[in-house]
Amino acid sequence: MTRKRVFSGVQPTGDLHLGNWLGAIKNWVDLQKTHETFVCVVDLHAITVPHKPELIAKNTISTAAQYLACGMDPKLCTIFIQSQIAAHSELCWLLNCVTPLNWMERMIQFKEKAIKQGDNVSVGLLDYPILMAADILLYDTDLVPVGEDQKQHLELARDIAQQRINSTFLTKNEPILKLPEPLIIKEGAKIMSLIDGNKKMSKSDPNDGSRICLLDPPELITKKIKRAKTDSFVGLEFDNPVRPEANNLLNLYSLMSGSSKESVLEECIEMGWGVFKPILAEATISKLEPIQIRYKELIKNPEEINRILKEGKTQAQEVAQATLQRVKLALGLLQEMD
Ligand code: TYM
Q1: What is the whole-number distance in angstroms between the Cα of residue 199 and the centre of ligand 1?
Q2: Facing residues of 17 across strands?
Q3: Residue 167 has pLDDT above 80, yes or no
Q4: 3-class DSSP state for residue 10?
Q5: Neighbouring-strand partners of residue 181
Q6: pLDDT at 77 > cutoff 90
Q7: Does the reported pTM lie above 0.90?
Q8: Which residues is 192 bridged to in the sheet?
Q9: What is the pLDDT of residue 119?
Q10: Collapsed DSSP state (helix, strand, coil) of residue 37
């Protein structure tokens, strides 16, 4: 039986944080054992907002190394760089030409990012979700493991595939593009900021203290947790709508310690913040320690990372090219003669 296919990616926009890991990468690590898994460093997405050219290549290698350090295994999965496979941009163009503009204008992340940027919004930022649809659809993907914030983008990818390609251009009975399903695992799907329990943890938050990065040294983790926003209620609890910070930090503790919500509640229900925070810091530091040790080893050897990425490129290219040809043919473009 053929295995179901998984595709996902992270932008190389600085160090990855707990949200990226718990919402996405940690699930990839499990899925690669049972699914045919493609993971990509989506560098073309990272240039849709103003970026520093001197950092992008460095961040791309570092992101790939963080995938590996988290447990992505090139023997089990395919790891590659988005910009090195031209089919991503080509399919994006083909999808651009069939997607209504008003579908794009209602994308929540576009609206949020555009507001922050004022006059300096690129066409690329508006097009971001179509490039993401191209990424996913190129690999005939079954499942896309992502955080909650990507749900609308996944719905768009399905709508483009179904309504604008399959229904419009289908000639034989075989669908041209496969419809992907999001895989959003509740516990890590929305990790919130340490300084505002109503905002998601994000790489673009100007306050570093709002997020814990996978590569933060132990002292910094302790400091960030110590400064994390709290409240003045007595005891700790999950799911109280007026205590978003308590819910987020307890949830983090559950994920970092590997204990169920029930046992975390039992352990922490009577704790004050002063007792709880050092325990959370300790659990986080020891969970991240093996990732940090592996990362330090890997990053000493960029040639090996590049070798893995080159191999990944060859494997990914073959699949991507076949899908691209299928779409070009369906859209009626002249086929090259051999
Ligand atoms: P990026 O780099 O912004 O986020 C990468 C992944 O991390 C998840 N995530 C979170 N999960 C839980 N809590 C958070 N606070 C949090 N912050 C981020 C995101 O949901 C995502 O899964 N657009 C994608 C990149 C992309 C992509 C793709 C993903 C481009 N093409 C194709 C899947 C398939 C993004 O959000 O990147």
Answers
A1: 15
A2: 213
A3: yes
A4: strand
A5: 143
A6: yes
A7: yes
A8: 200
A9: 78
A10: strand
> What confidence tier does 113 reach under pLDDT thresholds 50, 70, 90?
confident
Question: What whole-number distance in Å separates Cα of residue 313 and Cα of residue 6?
Answer: 16
Radius of gyration of the chain (CA): 21
Residue 12's CB is within 10 A of a number of other CB atoms, namely 26
Q: How many other C-beta atoms can be found within 10 angstroms of the C-beta atom of residue 274?
A: 9
What single DSSP character describes residue 24? I
Is 42 close to ligand 1, i.e. is its CB under 6 Å away?
A: yes
Which structure tokens are listed for 34?
């049972």
Kindly report, residue by residue over 308-337, the tens digit of the pLDDT: 999 999 999 999 999 999 999 999 999 988
CA proximity to 194, closest of 231, 248, 125, 117: 248
From the CA of 193, give the closest atom in ligand 1. Answer: 15
Q: Which of 328, 236, 219 shows the shortest CA–CA distance to 274?
A: 236
What residue has token string 């949200």?
19
Residue 200 annotated among the catalytic residues of the structure: yes
Residue from 151, 178, 203, 223 carrying the catalytic annotation: 203
Name the residue of 11, 20, 110 to mutate for ligand 1: max ligand atoms within 8 A of Cβ: 20
Q: How far is residue 283's CA from residue 95's CA, in Å, rounded to a whole number?
A: 45
User: Quick one: pLDDT at residue 60?
Assistant: 98
Q: Which residue has the tokens 């483009």?
A: 160
Strands 181-183 and 143-145: parallel
With a cut of 80, say whether residue 173 has pLDDT above it. Answer: no
Cα distance between the two ends of the chain: 33
SS (H, E, C) 132-194: HHHHHHCCCCCEEECCHHHHHHHHHHHHHHHHHHHHHHCCCCCCCCCCCEEECCHHHCCCECC
Pocket test for ligand 1, best of 7, 10, 56, 249 (most atoms within 8 A of CB): 10
The per-residue b/e assignment along 28-43, b for 16 or more CB within 10 angstroms, e otherwise, is: bbebbeebbbbbbbbb
